[in-house]
């Protein structure tokens, strides 16, 4: 990707998803909080894998899903994320390159295995995730180059990666390089549990160098420790120039330069699996933003992409999104 101008460069966890369907009773039996994401160690991931029965394995990772969505929309994108030199790592690298994404992060040799996320999809389409971060968590500043950052109009950072000090340093380096090269920095908060763990450092990052913030309603409320959506929107308007907040069937609310714009969700016949809905909303929004579209149109593109993804199992598009817009 060096030397090539692209729309968006994503930085995040390189993960392979294992998706299975189960009812709420299964979640209760195994102590899983419906709709949440929890981190597990390798033993925990293997134990749960044994219990879920047959599953669908597909490359995932929040920012990687977003980046794959951008190329499906007809945009250009690159990705930085760490895998191991194992079979699942090869699958991830193949899938993201096959999606038209520039990907050349060196694989980790001799360390933890490639990350995997076990996704339990409930009958109502809600997803509950147990994630073993493995090699993906070892991404560090040395994996970030100015050549890659300067070649992208927008650098997109995944909040899930924020757990380890090296990842924080990588994010800060990427944000500084993007600012230096007059590119925009976008951040997704990823999960309310993630926000609870890192609220202060997220706020510091947002106030210090994030141009575009993505969050869902629960994440935004957690960030500002309030139960009032209006108060949370007022707070984020002071901290960030542009924020896009998804609200499930209510659509999304965009605050840009202090002005709030509400955009309705795209209608779908049936919600099959909400895995990746926020990721693909960000894909559509960033695709529009890279083309200087008005924020309402950016949000509409986000809703179109999200509607496609929740109509089937898996967090990668099953049709070329550019045919839908």
Q: Could you characterize the architecture of this molecule?
A:
The chain is an alpha/beta fold. The protein has one domain (6-12, 61-91, 100-111, 135-323): UDP-N-acetylmuramoyl-L-alanine:D-glutamate ligase. It has 11 helices and 14 strands. It has helices spanning 24-29, 42-52, 62-72, 87-98, 146-150, 165-180, 192-209, 217-223, 229-239, 277-290, 295-309; strands spanning 6-11, 15-21, 37-39, 56-60, 77-80, 102-103, 115-121, 127-132, 152-158, 184-188, 212-216, 242-246, 252-256, 259-263. The strands form 2 sheets. Strands 6-5-1-9-10-11-12-13-14 form a 9-stranded mixed beta sheet, sandwiched between helices. The chain has a 5-stranded mixed beta sheet with strand order 3-8-7-2-4. Strand 7 and strand 8 (127-132) form a beta hairpin. The protein is globular, with a radius of gyration of 18 Å. The model has no long low-confidence stretch (mean pLDDT 92).
């Amino acid at each position: 990707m060096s030397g090539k101008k692209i729309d968006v460069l994503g930085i995040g966890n390189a993960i392979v998803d294992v998706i299975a369907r189960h009812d709420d009773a299964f979640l209760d039996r195994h102590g899983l909080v419906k709709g949440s994401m929890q981190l597990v160690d390798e033993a925990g991931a293997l134990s749960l894998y044994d219990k879920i029965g047959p599953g669908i394995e597909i490359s995932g990772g929040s920012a990687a899903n977003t980046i794959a969505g951008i190329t499906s929309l007809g945009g250009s994108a690159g990705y930085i994320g760490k895998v191991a030199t194992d079979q699942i790592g090869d699958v991830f690298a193949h899938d993201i390159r096959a999606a038209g994404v520039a990907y050349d992060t060196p694989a980790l040799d001799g360390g933890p295995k490639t990350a995997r996320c076990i996704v339990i999809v409930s009958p109502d389409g809600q997803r509950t995730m147990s994630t073993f971060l493995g090699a993906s968590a070892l991404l560090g500043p040395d994996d970030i180059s100015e050549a890659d950052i300067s070649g992208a109009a927008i650098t997109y950072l995944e909040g899930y990666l924020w757990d380890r000090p090296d990842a924080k340093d990588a994010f800060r380096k990427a944000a500084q390089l993007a600012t230096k090269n007059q590119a925009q920095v976008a951040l997704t908060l990823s999960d309310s549990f993630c926000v609870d763990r890192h609220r202060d450092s997220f706020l510091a990052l947002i106030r210090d160098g994030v141009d575009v913030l993505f969050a869902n309603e629960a994440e935004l409320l957690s960030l500002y420790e309030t139960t009032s959506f209006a108060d949370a929107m007022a707070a984020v308007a002071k901290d960030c120039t542009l924020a896009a907040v998804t609200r499930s069937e209510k659509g999304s609310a965009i605050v840009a330069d202090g002005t709030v714009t509400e955009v309705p969700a795209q209608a779908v016949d049936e919600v099959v699996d909400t895995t990746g809905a926020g990721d693909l909303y960000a894909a559509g929004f960033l695709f529009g933003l890279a083309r200087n579209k008005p924020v309402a149109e950016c949000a509409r593109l986000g809703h179109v992409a999200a509607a496609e993804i929740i109509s089937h199992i898996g967090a990668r598009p099953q049709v070329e999104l550019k045919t839908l817009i």
